[in-house]
Automatic annotation (TrEMBL):
The chain crosses the membrane at residues 30-50, 57-76, 88-112, 133-158, 170-194, 220-240, 260-283. The keyword Transmembrane helix applies. It comes from Eutypa lata (strain UCR-EL1). Its main location: membrane. The keyword Transmembrane helix applies. This is Putative rta1 like protein. GO terms for cellular component: fungal-type vacuole; plasma membrane. The lineage of its organism: Eukaryota, Fungi, Dikarya, Ascomycota, Pezizomycotina. Keywords: Membrane, Transmembrane, Transmembrane helix. It is a multi-pass membrane protein. It is found in: Membrane.
Length: 320
């Protein structure tokens, strides 16, 4: 997009203001963006309903918010498919689609605390209650950097190249830090899994640990978390490569790579966590009596597990 064609003097596609002159360089596919808009919208509603029903408040709020940002972003891209020079729609999709996955990450970070408490807190490297206190602020800092960067990019109006460049750098910094935070989170999850599995196989765990470890629903939820983590991580790597080239680079102007590595890689975690909601598949986060950093929750395991591993009510203690 050169000085002759920008959002100041181009408001619709004309002979002078061609589609190729936009930052994206293409007219977003209507069908794909309509599909993503509908699915993200339905997932947002699902997270709200299950969150209220099963009282997985913080977890579901961030999932719903992240899905809502994606919904707005792809709704804006629908408008761009009609008019690629719609500056409001372009700015909206920049901010929302960049920020959505970062918000979704907060829900992932909240699960590690509850998984370690439910399975075996004694093999965790750090106190379970510290996991959200470490990773959520780190994720919020990434969110703030990306939000400021997106704001600068929008404010630059594509004519102030200095402000535009600074906005791009802040977005890139935010996503890069997010990759580091995600990598550390993944390493801690993997290390905890191996330590817990080794103790289970050695026969050194409690009946409660065996009951949770053998629970099919819990395993399905963990697989869903793994798929969600992979999707978000792949998306972040793609965004780092994309933003490193600056606005309007060849990667940014390639719609298939955006759809696969951004759209579907974010849709994957949202869909998985919608199909396998924590409130139904992980009782350690359902029907909570206290808030997310509460001292104690009492959770009933399914009858088959109780009869197989323990005969009394299971009480989980959450360190504050």
């Amino acid at each position: 997009m050169g000085p002759e064609t920008n959002f100041w003097n181009c408001h619709e596609v004309t002979q002078k203001c061609r589609v190729e002159g936009t930052v994206l360089g293409y007219r977003p596919n209507f069908g794909i963006n309509a599909f993503l808009t509908v699915v993200f919208g339905l997932c947002m509603l699902s997270h709200i309903v299950t969150g209220v029903w099963k009282k997985t408040w913080a977890y579901s709020i961030f999932l719903a918010l992240g899905s809502g940002l994606e919904f707005v972003g792809y709704l804006a891209r629908l408008k761009l498919s009609d008019n690629p020079w719609d500056s409001t729609a372009f700015q909206a999709q920049i901010c929302t689609i960049i920020l959505g996955p970062t918000v979704i990450c907060i829900s992932l970070y909240l699960t590690l605390k509850h998984i370690t408490v439910a399975v075996d807190p004694s093999v965790s490297r750090i106190r379970p209650a510290l996991y959200p206190l470490i990773f959520v602020p780190a994720d919020v800092s990434c969110l703030i950097l990306q939000a400021i960067g997106g704001g600068l990019a929008v404010g630059a109006r594509w004519t102030n190249t200095t402000m535009l460049r600074h906005g791009n750098r802040l977005i890139l910094a935010g996503i890069s830090i997010q990759c580091v935070v995600l990598g550390l989170f993944g390493a801690l999850c993997l290390e905890y899994f191996y330590r817990a599995r080794r103790r289970v196989r050695a026969g050194e765990s409690s009946p409660v640990t065996y009951a949770v470890w053998d629970d099919r629903n819990f395993r399905l939820f963990c697989y869903a978390l793994l798929g969600a983590y992979i999707g978000i991580f792949v998306r972040c790597i793609y965004r780092v490569v994309e933003m490193a080239g600056g606005w309007g680079n060849s990667i940014m102007r390639d719609e298939p790579s955006f759809v696969i590595l951004e759209g579907f890689m974010v849709l994957l975690p949202v869909l998985l966590l919608t199909l396998f909601p924590a409130g139904f598949f992980f009782l350690g986060m359902a029907n909570r009596r206290n808030n997310d950093l509460g001292k104690e929750d009492i959770i009933e395991l399914p009858t088959p597990l109780v009869s197989m591993r323990a005969t009394e009510q299971v009480r989980f203690h959450f360190a504050s």
